[in-house]
């Protein structure tokens, strides 16, 4: 009984003091939407094309936006085509004459270039619908993490403020309008690089790694 009480107290203390509560909550949310194949794509617009104005049974909230045709008409179908074609670096089927897919950062490919596009890794290990949902949510997930930890670097201990500001980053009209990796990840990677730069300048060690050379190599 005493052990259970102690564990509960420790958990409550962790919730109040740890900077990892928000990242853990985000990770759980990311996994949940992946498992249940939840995303914010406007591909639901095809339901009205095929079945008329009947309600889409898979729609949870809101409505597909026809104006987001760059997403439901181009980006998302191209992802589907790539996966169905085996994720080639040059897709022979696209537009009849083929297309070099290494230049498209939003399409999964089996090519060394794809190593540097983590937003597409899920298509190699998950069924398409789960991979699509994971990729959709990964963009705001990475930006919120980067913004959260960057704000904590500038304002140590201000966890609630860091959470609110990181969420506000993701909810900015500019990013939501252009919902693309080129927008989200440009900000996310820039913030991660700034954090690493600060750690290098301050010569901060990585926990359990004593070697300064190994620390620099990891950074």
Spans of at least 5 consecutive residues whose pLDDT stays below 50 are none
* N-to-C SSE string, H for helix and E for strand: HHHHEEHHHHH
Query: Largest sheet at a glance?
Result: 2 strands, antiparallel
How much helix is in the residues? 55-70%
Strand content: under 5%
User: Taking strands numbered 1, 2, ... along the chain, how are they ordered across the largest sheet?
Assistant: 1-2
- Count of beta strands: 2
Q: Given the helix and strand composition, which structural class is it?
A: mainly alpha
Number of helices: 9
Computed over alpha carbons, the radius of gyration is: 21 Å
Give the overall silhouette.
globular
Give your account of this protein's structure.
The protein has 219 residues and is mostly helical. It is 58% helix and 2% strand. It contains nine helices and two strands; from the N terminus they run ααααββααααα. It has a two-stranded antiparallel ribbon. α2 packs antiparallel against α5. The protein is globular. The mean pLDDT is 91.
